[in-house]
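Hi there,

I know you've been waiting on this one. I reran it after we fixed the sequence typo, so this is the corrected version. Both the input and the resulting structure follow.
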Amino acid sequence: MNPLPDDPSMHVVVERANVAWVEAQDYFIGCLADRDRSPADDGLTTIAAARGRGELSDEEALGLCVFILAAGHGTTVALLGNAIFLLLQHTEALQRLVQSPELTGPAVEEVLRYEGPIATASRLAAQDLEIADRPIRRGDAVILHLAAADRDPVAFNNPANFDITRSPNRHVAFGWGSHFCLGAPLARLQAAAVLGALAKADVLPRWRLDGQPAWRLGRPDARELQELKVSWLA
């Protein structure tokens, strides 16, 4: 059975992905070798050291490097796109952000809750348990709907409202516990820096939504824009 749809474009995508994966691995082989020779205070050195101690195989170390690069890039891009869309859609929140730059951090947290880039997460149950009268056995694969949890009225007041002053805001956009996103601090820093710069430079207040946005389809675990058209007000 052919694992790919009968769509020539899909074969092109897969082939490009394979080439990109090999190129990324080749790149990180050099990076890890460099850290073996000259350790630094960074994540690559931590991975290289774990490989040197035998805690990670070569394949695991390279896979971890590529995963961190891809996961951190795509999700942060999606977060920024979602943030810009929501602020342009909620003009009162945008004006409040412009007037009060200290709300940049809380605004990022509300974007993560309201329209986070990762909608679901898959896990294997570590033990037998029961949720909502449904049994889950140890080893069962489960899908966690993070987006639904972040709109739970039991956990959030008026969850359908986009409120950049929301506090507390204990969303689960980055996961929870031992599975909490490794790149969360960097994603928060990057998003806050970009939104703060756009607001301070009087860019966002001059943008207006031009039609409806196009959401990227085909990935139920992700929530990201494919296209967002805006017009510029002089």
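Quick highlight: Helices lie at 8-37, 43-52, 58-89, 91-99, 104-115, 146-149, 184-200.

Best,
R. S.
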